[in-house]
Amino acid sequence: MTSAELADPKTIVYKIKPEAVWDDGTPVSGKDFEFIWRVANGRDCSAEKCTPWTQRGL
Fold this sequence. Notes:
Number of strands: 2
Largest sheet: 2 strands, antiparallel
Structural class: alpha+beta
Strand content: 15-25%
Radius of gyration: 13 Å
Strand order of the largest sheet: 1-2
Helix content: 10-25%
Distance between the termini: 23 Å
Number of helices: 1
Shape: flat
Oligomer: single chain
């Protein structure tokens, strides 16, 4: 992260370092954070049911 700022009581704005990449060289994006949030919140999906964005062809 380059920064994380509270925009309002329910919103945090994260700025990802441009050089942040996964071990395969794929850039880290907001979609990665969304996937982790969906798996962790216990409502939207489980790790077994959610396909990572990189495997969805998006």
